Amino acid sequence: MKHKIAPIAGLAASSILYLAILLTAIQYNGQQGEAFSFLNHFISDLGNPLFCKKHYIFNTGVIISGIGFGIFAFCMRGIIETKLANASVYLGVFAALLCSGVGIVPAHHGFLHLIIAVSFFVLMSLAMMLYSISILVSNTNKFPNYIAYYGFGAMISLILLLFSPKDLMALEQEQGALFERPDYWLIAISEWMVFFFLTSWVVLVSIYLL
């Protein structure tokens, strides 16, 4: 029964999150009155009440989606019956709670929000990588290998995110509303890449399970 719940929870959580992002992004008004761009704005900018009037849409969507991702992760338990797969499931559940924490503690809370957001990205990417490894080493063939290989995308993007230059982030904190965003900001793009691989992997697995 729980294996039937997993794809429903995964698709619902991803859909709610995508919708919340789109609804908030189209009404975003940044520090200098700029429109939202996926090329130079961070995901959490959408939840900052200082610059985004519809921040509550994004934050509520993130909280609900975190719960959905937690249900998805928990219901993946037992599909691949290995210790590594089960460990990744519990890690995924904890990471999903942190996802909700991103909405509960929005971006204007500064360092605390940053810790929660980074922890979510790191732990969820790790959980996805471990489960992907489980797929490759499993003898049951419950999932095709392409799902496993796709799952490594989040970790690769995370490494790019962690090693991206962060000097402009410090400058943004220092200059505030005077900060001029570059047209293309590598660390912001990297964050969106991690987000894309995390959520699209859930969608891919959910569709396959259906």
| Global outline | elongated
Strand content: under 5%
Q: Round the mean pLDDT to the nearest integer and report it.
A: 92
How is the main sheet built?
none
Order of helices and strands: HHHHHHH
Report helical residue fraction.
55-70%
- Radius of gyration, whole Å: 17 Å
- Structural class label: mainly alpha
Count of alpha and pi helical runs? 7
Tell me how many strands there are: 0
Low-pLDDT segments, ≥5 res: none
Describe this structure in a few short sentences.
Helices cover 69% and strands 0% of the residues. With 210 residues, the chain is mainly alpha-helical.
Topology:
Layout: H1 2-25, H2 55-75, H3 83-104, H4 111-137, H5 145-162, H6 167-175, H7 186-209
Helix pairs in contact: 1-2, 1-7, 2-3, 3-4, 4-5, 4-7, 5-7
Can you characterise this structure?
The protein has 210 residues and is mainly α. Helices cover 69% and strands 0% of the residues. The chain has helices at residues 2-25, 55-75, 83-104, 111-137, 145-162, 167-175, 186-209.
